[in-house]
Design a protein that fits this description.
By secondary structure, the chain is α/β, with parallel strands linked by helices. 44% of the residues lie in helices and 19% in strands. The chain has a 7-stranded mixed sheet with strand order 1-8-7-6-2-3-4, sandwiched between helices. Helix 9 crosses helix 14 and helix 14 crosses helix 15 (438-452).
């Protein structure tokens, strides 16, 4: 039986481990939950062959953590478990705010280990998951596949990952053999000087075009995760549901907004509050407010780690967040920089229905973005400074009130601008033009004011004074709008003719 669900429990992981009789293979970005591993995995070593692909111990920043994990790995290996550590890094070996590895600078490390995948399988079944083997209790998503075709497919991909990053050659894995001579020289020099394995970006010959939305994909080697997501967004017919730990990618935000505005569709996103995005909380908040202004629905969970994409035709679940390195970054000459991510796509309507229902259940109970954002420390500090500039102190409720007004006003202003642009497009469309001119925008602004209520002529002109050049231009636009039946002029009032426009 194939099943999907969101949950904070780890029952699916426990069940797959308990049912394994011959072998158990695990891919996990983190493999550190000592209590869980010693309780459920170590006892299986007496009867089950276990292989684990994860990151090196130095991917954790604290020395006591490294010592503890080293002891855990030693005990596992002594019991017969094969632990494969992926030492390959991707990107420039410089400061990254989210890495905990390498030389620590300004709160971050200078290593970015590439392997971020998560799945496990036995001879009986497959578990595609967003959870790591860590002690974090977070909201995750799981897809259980109990069929032999899936087992065979996942085993092939597991062997592929080992071949690419682990198997012994000049360096672990065949990745070195597949890059250009210039890249080999760079890898050699860095390894000699620092004993590190780093590839700055992947050459075009390693990155194929995306294939069908079916089965397990190892990105970027089975195609770019970014292209899979963009294709999914653009092909969806009725709805798009996205769950991500972090929402921090401008290009995907832009794609979602374009999709919403050009061909309206229900879009819902579950993610964490912006102040949890360590890269740049300010930009993360800006992306959320842009989505809200485009009427994209967003809800927050502080403990969300689930990563899945759901439409009426496709269910995708895997390891990629909506962020640059997870989805991939375009470099010059077709080169591509990205984490190694795992994603499984299913077209089974019953699984899609399960995922949709589970998503909607958690979405209903999520925190509304504005209710979370306005209470952030950054906004309260700005409100405090604003009151202070007038020489007064302020209580928390006053700061929260100003913060709420500011954020609500920002979203409302963005919505107004979008409506004016839409009106400009509709006006140009009446004349079979695809290029917008200034007169369209000024006409749209007039219509925007009139959508709120009818106006007296002088009142409307006063509103437009800062933008329109003079009364002659204003009267000319009003006359044209009237002649084209966009507006009606009755008893000294101007009102919109909505039937003609819409």
């Amino acid at each position: 039986m194939n099943t999907f669900r969101f949950t904070r429990e780890k029952e699916e992981i426990k069940s797959v481990i308990s049912r394994a009789e011959n072998f158990l293979n695990i891919v996990s970005f983190q493999f550190t939950d000592e209590d869980f591993i010693r309780k459920y995995i170590l006892p299986k070593t007496n009867s089950v062959q276990i292989e684990i692909l994860t990151l090196p111990v130095d991917s954790y920043s604290k020395e006591d953590e490294r010592d503890r994990i080293t002891r855990l790995y030693n005990d596992l290996e002594y019991a017969g478990v094969h632990i494969y550590k992926c030492y390959w890094e991707v990107g420039d070996p410089s400061l990254t705010t989210t890495s905990q590895s390498g030389v620590e600078k300004e709160g971050g490390g200078d290593k970015w280990y590439s392997m971020h995948g998560k799945f496990m399988y036995s001879e009986k079944e497959v578990l595609m998951m967003t959870a790591n083997f860590s002690d974090a209790e977070e909201l995750e998503s799981y897809l259980l596949l109990q069929d032999q075709e899936a087992v065979v497919q996942f085993h092939k991909k597991f062997l592929y990952l080992k071949s690419m990053f682990i198997d012994e050659r000049k360096y672990p894995g065949k990745l070195y053999e597949l890059v250009r001579d210039e890249e080999k020289k760079y890898i050699d020099e860095l390894h000699i000087s620092n004993e590190r394995l780093n590839i700055k970006e992947y050459p075009p010959n390693l990155i194929p075009e995306i294939s069908s939305f079916s089965g397990l994909k190892i990105t970027p080697f089975d195609g770019k995760a970014r292209e899979y997501l963009c294709e999914l967004i653009n092909k969806a017919q009725n709805y798009i549901y996205l769950s991500t730990e972090r929402l921090f990618d401008k290009k995907i935000v832009d794609v979602l907004i374009k999709r919403k505005r050009r061909n309206p569709i229900e879009i819902k996103i579950l993610t964490c509050p912006p102040d949890q995005v360590r890269d740049d909380p300010g930009n993360a908040e800006m992306y959320v407010t842009k989505l809200l202004s485009a009427n994209v629905d967003v809800r927050f969970y502080t403990d969300i780690h689930a990563k899945c994409w759901i439409t009426d035709e496709v269910l995708g679940i895997g390891s990629a967040n909506l962020s640059q390195m997870n989805l991939g970054i375009s470099k010059s000459h077709g080169f591509w920089r990205a984490n190694t991510e795992t994603f499984y796509f299913a077209n089974d309507l019953s699984l899609i229905s399960q995922a949709k229902e589970s998503f909607e259940n958690f979405y209903t109970h999520g925190v509304e973005p504005i209710a979370s954002i306005y209470k952030s420390a950054r906004h309260l500090a700005e409100a405090k400074e604003l009151f202070s500039s007038f020489g007064v102190t302020s209580k928390r409720d006053a700061k929260e009130a100003i913060s709420l007004i500011k954020i609500s006003s920002t979203i409302r202003e963005q919505q107004h601008i979008a409506k004016i642009v839409l009106l400009s497009v509709k006006i140009a469309g009446k004349y079979d033009r695809t290029e917008i001119i200034k007169r369209d925008v000024l006409s749209a602004l007039i219509l925007f004011y009139l959508t709120e209520r009818k106006h007296e002529n002088n009142e409307l002109f006063e509103k437009l004074k800062p933008i329109i050049s003079d009364e002659i231009e204003y009267n000319s636009i009003i006359q044209n709008l009237h002649l084209d039946n966009f507006i009606e002029i009755l008893d000294g009032y101007i009102k919109i003719n909505s039937e003609q426009l819409f």
